[in-house]
């Protein structure tokens, strides 16, 4: 049986991954059923290719694609790898001379926004190794359902993503409307917890490196974890009563009063 990619596009976040897991569970998209052969790697491993496979179903314990990759780095709920120059891969880490560093700093100073966007695609894999020119980025995720690992492997070129050439599952109407099974949400060890509405709808995830602003109301929350917003009816403090109603010691005046907040936000990772 021939192997085809599960999806062609870009996996921007955890929600995109979960949509593909769900589509595969329903039989709407194909899972990889076996290891790729060499000739299949040459035509299938390209910018935009996304593969989903069940370890038990496919027999694949370790994904191989024939390319040379840097060590992995954590990027949100994913691991990312950057393709290395095969000819220079034996040399280890890249050494940057002073002139090249000055050029990079000058470029970064003039185009900080582009630098931030690129870092969101490659994480900390910027100048550390001898990367292949116009090489690929590999982005992977693994979750466990009923004791079996479900894996997702995606490939992309930085320029393709920044130019908007690759669509995301969230932007495909047929995928975006899918209700994600609780099996993919609960008991998963996500580093960046998901934001789930009371009805079970996944609405986002916490921004990595950026603080999430507090929600303005119980119905409108920013990205983040599973958030519950409780309204607290503050009671008037009793005379000669300490914090939370405990009595004050004799002959000791209360120095200050702590105000009970009107809203209490609880962040509960799932």
From TrEMBL:
InterPro entries: Gti1/Pac2. Coiled coil: none annotated. It comes from the Eukaryota. Residues 95-115, 202-223, 237-258 are annotated as: Disordered. It holds the Pfam family Gti1_Pac2. GO terms for molecular function: DNA binding. This is Gti1/Pac2 family-domain-containing protein.
């Amino acid at each position: 049986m021939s192997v085809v990619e599960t999806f062609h596009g870009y996996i921007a976040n955890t929600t995109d991954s979960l949509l593909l897991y769900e589509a595969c569970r329903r039989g709407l998209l194909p899972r990889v059923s076996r290891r790729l052969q060499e000739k299949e790697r040459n035509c299938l491993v390209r910018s935009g290719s996304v593969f989903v496979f069940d370890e038990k179903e496919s027999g694949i314990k370790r994904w191989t694609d024939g390319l040379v990759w840097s060590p992995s780095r954590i990027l949100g709920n994913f691991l990312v790898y950057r393709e290395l120059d095969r000819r220079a891969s034996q040399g280890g880490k890249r050494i940057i001379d002073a002139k090249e560093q000055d050029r990079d700093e000058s470029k970064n100073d003039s185009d900080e926004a582009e630098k931030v966007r690129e870092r969101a695609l490659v994480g900390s894999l910027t100048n550390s190794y001898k990367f292949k020119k116009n090489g690929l980025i590999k982005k992977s995720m693994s979750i466990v359902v009923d004791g079996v690992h479900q894996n997702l492997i995606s490939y992309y070129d930085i320029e393709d993503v920044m130019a908007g050439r690759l669509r995301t599952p969230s932007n495909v109407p047929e995928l975006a409307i899918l209700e994600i099974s609780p099996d993919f949400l609960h008991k998963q060890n996500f580093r960046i917890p998901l934001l789930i509405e009371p009805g079970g709808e996944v609405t986002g995830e916490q921004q990595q490196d950026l603080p999430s602003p507090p929600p303005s109301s119980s119905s409108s929350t920013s990205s983040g974890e599973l958030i519950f917003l409780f309204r607290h009816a503050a009671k008037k403090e009793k005379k000669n009563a300490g914090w939370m109603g405990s009595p004050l010691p004799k002959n000791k005046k209360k120095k200050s009063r702590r105000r009970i907040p009107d809203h209490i936000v609880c962040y509960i990772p799932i």
